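Sequence in, structure out. Go.
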Amino acid sequence: MNREDLAIDKTFKIDPTIKKDTAFKFLNTLPETYNFLDEVIPNAKKSSNVHFNYGKDVEATEHYYSVRNKADAFKKGNDSLIISIGTADGYSGSGINLIIKKDSYSSRYYKFSDMLSYNDKKPQHKTLYQNLILDKAKYNLNDSIYGFINFKSQYIDKRSDTIIVAAKGHFRAKIREAEF
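Output:
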């Protein structure tokens, strides 16, 4: 582990009142968006208002594309929880994965496309800042999870282009068993 990793807060905060935040009341007024191959649930309410900005030096500010993001949460084993917030259309997608193990977590931006090239490099990721607030510390299958993420990272894509990614907003999901 290098010194820069030590500067990143890896413990999430607990706020049992977060589910009463006005952001969730607003999400209740919007229909859920679905990723490619998702099971459509009639009358489901929006799960995320997390918004992403990309560029050379950005801050996360709300914009139109935040309405496309969806939150999913998966329990893997006894001590791992994976929260995925993003969008995918069957050809490409992007978002953030939050991996929670015991009392700590890590966040990682992801981006994929069906465009392949023989000389693509593996993307590199460096978290610059992360702050996660959840409504409780432990979750079981079928529990609801409510949270807030504020995240910034440096992402070097397959073609060696460097971008800064910022994400910020509220999310909620029902914990399902991981299928992977």
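Check: Residues 1 and 29 are 44 Å apart (CA to CA). The longest helix spans residues 22-27.
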